[in-house]
């Protein structure tokens, strides 16, 4: 592989105008496609194989046009102190709001608006009322016009003295890229300038990463509606594509500078940089792609599409690093060095003092056991809160107290009970029942007598007379364990009801859907972890020609991920440092967080493993002793890996400033995981373990060595072909 990439790098260097124009043309083409495509909405959300999804599918079939899984909103009204919502003046204001929603802007997307007085949606004490608004489409598919009409619906009622708040998923807005990404890029630029001491060298990774991300995100935008990708897909692709794009280009530019420092001609240096560091980039990219594509194991179409789209952006980042970066290096030449560095190039090779990476590696080699124990125990302590991990999906009750969604949630809880914010939909399929109406009444009676039920509202049979929906209001809040137990109790009673009446009972609704989603994510975690780690282990074994090095990489990753989960629990569930992080409301950790963190962080963490350890492997193959090979790897790679990790942390940390709790949690989790993996595992655990293993680290059974293809990541075959380390006469024979 190194030989092929060497030739590719030299080709891109020589034909730099053509290569650069080709990428610019691709960027323009993708941009035109994105600009001409219709505005992206959200992808259709479904959870195949769950009871909640089966019930929604049945409702779509039996109640056509009802949009059972469409967005909903509740406009909540509260009367001033000492007054009631049934007063004539207040009633008149509410009716105006209802009529305004039915006939105002965005009304074409509304399926129904329920009058609170006709629908008995007034609290017992008369102080609170609400109108239920049901939409034909999901919250992410609502037009801005419809969303603004909903937000402004209660303005006149507020002016009349009523408290008006709005809750529900209809207010769920399309995530927008804000200042977080800009801050991340700015930090990346500063780190690159400090690392390279050259504006040209610092600008190259940023420029190429932005081009790659631009192509990837534009392609996703252009194909969003065709492939049902949804609006959130581009956010994930941008987050990951920007991080890996900068890192991969950083690896190539750093190696190019090292080759120039050894006296190579620019074209040869570019070829060697792509042949060696480029090999590491290819395999690092493959681990990220494996992790993202592996999300298909979860069997949730939305996550699968997000994973594939983000993986495509990573592939683009790899191709950009292998072709566009050497092409731009051709334009830059030796300007990748700062002026001071160019003046120092004539100095003798041993004149410079050992850098920080060299000194750190030598320190670890002298005290490997102490460093290893300190790192493992430290991560273990941070991981302790992970034992208390509680998972769920956020609802309006987890919103900041200043938002209208949270205020509406609290008003409904106070006026109607905490369970009112998450009613269950019990779908009764009476197609096989002899007496459909009696079967529905029987189900209603059984559910009404269950512990944890505050109220039941029997529904009418559909036109065909084969399906009904019983609304069940739990006593406890939607995200509580008591409500989850109630859902399981109703489902457990289903087989008995079927045998007695012939009716099939299915529980759905947003609360049940959240419970099923969390359960599905929990069930998929271990298979996903086994698949991703297993495939990556085989890949790393191919790269390093070793069994113990990939095993150490996988175990170190698991340690860093558990520690990161512990930090997430401490901040977002326990509330430690909540004020510092801007966490206004603690609660369960988002159910997709563990599997998402495993996938993304595993792929990204392997970047550092591959880049750092391949340099050690390269030095070892070229004749250095194991300990010295570790020092050489840190001498050339520690500074680059440190810069890459800081950049990646900056990109992810930029999302911590988001007002959306889910985005904030993802940004914090990924940033802290990269910190633990890069600075504790790769910088401390890896050299300590390699120092203790010595020669055994690179052991591979002979039969396995013969069976595995030689991908030549360390460039040994390339070195032979180029005649490195031989006399001029021998070099001529090689060339001949």
Note the main attributes of this structure.
4-stranded antiparallel beta sheet, alpha+beta, Alpha-Beta Plaits, 26 helices, disordered C terminus, Multidrug efflux transporter AcrB transmembrane fold, 7% strand, 736 residues
What does this structure look like?
The model is unreliable at 346-351 and 726-736 (pLDDT under 50). α8 packs antiparallel against α9 (232-261), α10 runs antiparallel to α18 (510-544) and α18 runs parallel beside α21. The strands form three sheets. The chain has a four-stranded antiparallel β-sheet with strand order 2-3-1-4, with helices on both faces. With 736 residues, it is an alpha+beta fold. The protein has helices at residues 2-14, 16-36, 51-62, 88-103, 144-151, 155-159, 179-196, 199-227, 232-261, 266-293, 301-332, 339-344, 356-366, 368-383, 404-416, 436-448, 481-501, 510-544, 548-573, 578-581, 593-621, 626-653, 661-693, 702-707, 716-722, 728-735, and strands spanning 72-78, 110-113, 128-135, 163-167, 391-392, 424-429, 453-457, 467-474, 504-508, 589-590. Among the domains are: 1-36 and 177-348, Multidrug efflux transporter AcrB transmembrane fold; 72-171, 2-Layer Sandwich (Alpha-Beta Plaits); 702-736, no CATH class. It is elongated. It contains 26 helices and ten strands.
CATH class of the domain at 1-36 and 177-348: Mainly Alpha
Characterize the overall form: elongated
Question: How are the strands ordered across the major sheet?
Answer: 2-3-1-4
Number of strands: 10
Strand proportion: 5-15%
The helix/strand class is alpha+beta
- The radius of gyration over CA amounts to 30 Å
**Overall helicity:** 55-70%
Poorly predicted residue ranges: 346-351, 726-736
The CATH homologous superfamily of the domain at 1-36 and 177-348 corresponds to Multidrug efflux transporter AcrB transmembrane domain
Distance separating the two termini: 22 Å
Number of distinct helices: 26
The CATH topology of the domain at 1-36 and 177-348 is what?
Multidrug efflux transporter AcrB transmembrane fold
Largest beta-sheet details: 4 strands, antiparallel
Q: Please name the CATH architecture of the domain at 1-36 and 177-348.
A: Up-down Bundle
Mean pLDDT: 83
